[in-house]
């Protein structure tokens, strides 16, 4: 097996994905949906999988950054993904 620049085994996302458990989608009961806080279908659509990972930019822009980030997601070293690369928050 080949190693990455840090000496770890180099593994592709496809090799990792074969271990992911496929799960079906279960629609919640109508009573639960009725009490949910999110009712705007446009907001739900904004975070559809086809907009991943850029859709998370919206969440990041709700925060006050000490140092603003340059990249939403760096997925070059799976499974060690880095979110909001270069950004710094004053958060615990």
Automatic annotation (TrEMBL):
Gene3D superfamilies: N-terminal domain of ligase-like (3.40.50.12780). InterPro entries: ACAS_N (IPR032387), ANL_N_sf (IPR042099). It comes from the Bacteria. Residues 56-92 form the Acetyl-coenzyme A synthetase N-terminal domain. It holds the Pfam family ACAS_N. This is Acetyl-coenzyme A synthetase. It comes from Candidatus Acidiferrum panamense.
């Amino acid at each position: 097996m080949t190693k990455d620049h840090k000496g770890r085994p180099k593994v592709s996302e496809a090799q990792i994905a074969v271990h992911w458990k496929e799960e079906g989608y279960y629609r919640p009961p109508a009573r639960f949906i009725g009490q949910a806080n999110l009712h705007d279908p446009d907001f739900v659509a904004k975070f559809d999988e086809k907009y991943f990972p850029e859709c998370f930019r919206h969440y990041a822009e709700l925060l006050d950054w000490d140092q603003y980030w340059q990249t939403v997601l760096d997925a070059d070293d799976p499974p060690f993904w880095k979110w909001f690369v270069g950004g710094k928050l004053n958060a615990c």
